[in-house]
Specification:
The protein has about 270 residues and is mostly helical. The chain has 12 helices and 2 strands, in the order ααααααααββαααα. The protein has one domain. Helix 3 packs antiparallel against helix 8, helix 5 runs antiparallel to helix 7 and helix 9 packs antiparallel against helix 10. It is globular. The C terminus is likely disordered.
Length: about 270
């Protein structure tokens, strides 16, 4: 699992570096050559810049796995993530409500227009990751965070680039989401989920349920909560339920118990 997370995070950082090194002019040309509608190029380029920063979220499961492999226990890891999340959300609250902080906020360029007057996605992302680590076994928490980072990014980029190209039907509460984007998220979550649980028999059932739940959470944002919170929490619940049902007759092989049963490199 450590090798998997290192490889995934390294690939993510490589993508960030490549995106940052490409000029806006070259980026737009690449998008046009890739078949993106001319009218969507500007918005897609902007979304890619935002999601490049989003890829840094892969540090969370990577660091979590490394700490576990070095002998840290789950309780200690939970204290760390809460110690990061609470000050981070407090600072973001000050950005919204304290004029001086708002004027001098260093990351204005990546904020959406709606985030100028409310907590940004990064705060909700931090809270979602923290809740996943707090309530789920390590492998489930890390997988749900990967679903959030890679799945949500895929939905946004494919939706921006090709939304309405093959299916004109708009979906979601306000009709702002696309079938193409949601399909991309489901497939990406399936691929990463099945690869993470590659050693688990019947993994596709639990992963399919969780990928569908994550996709619906991104699409509808249930309970009126930001999808950066609902995706990791609800997909974590779905994975836990799926594997608990699948391995109810074989508890010794249940991946939910990997951290307790394995010696050496914990999952």
């Amino acid at each position: 699992m450590t090798a998997y997370m290192v490889a995934l995070a390294s690939a993510g950082f490589f993508m960030v570096i490549v995106i940052r090194c490409i000029s806006k002019k070259d980026m737009r040309k690449l998008l046009e050559d890739g078949g993106v509608c001319v009218k969507k190029v500007a918005k897609t380029a902007s979304e890619i810049e935002r999601k490049a920063f989003h890829l840094c979220g892969l540090l969370v499961p990577l660091i979590y796995q490394v700490l576990l492999s070095r002998g840290w226990n789950q309780s200690e890891c939970r204290k760390i993530v809460w110690a990061i999340t609470i000050p981070g959300m407090s600072t973001d609250w000050m950005r919204v409500n304290v004029p001086f902080v708002k004027r001098n906020w260093p990351l204005k360029g990546i904020l959406r227009e709606r985030e100028e007057h409310q907590l940004c996605g990064g705060s909700y992302f931090s809270l979602g990751c923290t809740l996943a680590i707090q309530f789920f076994p390590p492998v489930i928490a890390m997988t749900s965070i990967v679903f959030l980072v890679m799945g949500d990014m895929s939905a946004a980029l494919v939706g921006r680039s090709f939304g309405g190209t093959w299916c004109s039907t708009k979906i979601g509460p306000d009709g702002k989401k696309s079938v193409e984007g949601s399909t991309a998220m489901f497939l990406v979550c399936m691929v990463f989920g099945c690869s993470i649980f590659s050693q688990v028999h019947l993994r596709e059932y639990a992963v399919c349920i969780a990928a569908l739940v994550a996709t619906l959470a991104e699409l509808y944002e249930p309970f009126g909560l930001n999808d950066n919170v609902t995706i990791p929490v609800l997909s974590g619940v779905a994975l836990t339920f799926g594997f608990a049902r699948t391995y109810s007759c074989e508890p010794g092989r249940n991946p939910l118990l990997w951290h307790d049963l394995w010696t050496g490199d914990p999952w």
